[in-house]
Amino acid sequence: MFVQQKAFNRRQAAAYIGKSPSTIDRLVKAGRLATTTNGTLKYFRKQDLDEFINSGITAKEVV
Asked: Residue 2 and residue 24: Cα distance in Å, rounded?
């Protein structure tokens, strides 16, 4: 999938990596997925999402 977008909100990030928004929350809480903030809004950089995808970490590993 070729995506030019560089930053994603929570729902977009979930769709991009094929997980649910609640899984995104668990990954962030566990320190497995980085966020970037702009004021009070959290964003997910495409680079960080790609690194997560390539890491081979599964959502089941994050409890």
From this structure: 21
Q: What is the pLDDT of residues 18-34, one digit of tens each?
A: 999 999 999 999 999 99
Residue from 26, 27, 37 nearest 49 by CA:
27
Region of residue 62 (phi > 0: left; psi between -120 and 50: alpha; otherwise: beta): beta
Band of pLDDT at residue 62, cut at 50, 70 and 90: low
pLDDT for res 1? 56
The model's pTM: 0.81
- Could you give the 3-state DSSP secondary structure of residue 3? coil
Complete DSSP assignment for 24-50: HHHHHHTTSS--EEETTEEEEEHHHHH
Stretch (H or E) spanning 18: none
